[in-house]
Amino acid sequence: MTTTSPLPPHAGRDSTFALLDAPPATHAIATRVLDRGQCGPDDAEAPAYRLFLAVPRAAPPPGGWPILYMLDGNAAFDFLTPAMLEGVPGLIVAGIGYDTEKQFARSQRIRDYSPPAAPGAPLRPDPHHPERLAGGAEVFVARLTGPIRAAAEAGLAVDGTRRALWGHSFGGLCSLYAACTRPGAFARHAVISPSVWWDTPLVEALVAQARFDRHSTRFYMAMGDSEKRTGSAGPPPDGPSPVTMAVFAAVAAKPGVAAATEVYPGAVHIAALPASIPAALALAAA
């Protein structure tokens, strides 16, 4: 699977938010900045969280709508199209982004989406970029499943058994972390090009310790076959990362997991983001 969507440079570009000006016939589109006092972040210098919502225009079913949460919400909603949403008329999509005009809030997303060294551990310098702090996923996921979720779902008829979480790159790492540490918080996870390289032993340990046998959890895990780290030298690899594919296999082998894995031919790292959205929408809507 490849994509013809215009791709941003690695550092990100300004968001277009085109859906706000040209919404689909099936969904109402809205965005707002979430209250920092309730939803965080604690750092006053960090951008507040911004919520993007696509809500079905039809009346909800008796049990409520399924909902897909998308991390890096600015970029996710930039790549969502009216046609994609019209293909899932009964699905709420909630993008959790940042109060910035960029598609990616680079430093803050690394802080929010990277796992702590151990449960309850404080933030630490990013091992790859020591000028940044990392390891905030435990705090962020608690907020995502608490006050951020409450703000996103306020006034909406949501089926609490059909929540899904999508993430790409560090967002994919966060989706995997949430699945491993809070099984049952989301019934379905789309884990796209997760940044396993960031701390491979930590990721492997998270997966090894995770238990899904008390929950029925569906995974869609995918990456391109030409991905390499931003700024790394040399040509794109000929095939997907063996380390990441091994993590995918370990997740799929867990009791209680139903998993589908896909490799996007010819896709570099950023191209896996838009390539994954149709399958993530289908996963969440099923």
Automatic annotation (TrEMBL):
Transmembrane segments: none
Name recorded for this polypeptide: Alpha/beta hydrolase-fold protein
UniProt entry keywords in alphabetical sequence: Hydrolase
Family under the similarity heading: Belongs to the esterase D family.
A single GO molecular function term of this UniProt record: hydrolase activity
Any matching Pfam family: Esterase
Organism of derivation: Ruixingdingia sedimenti
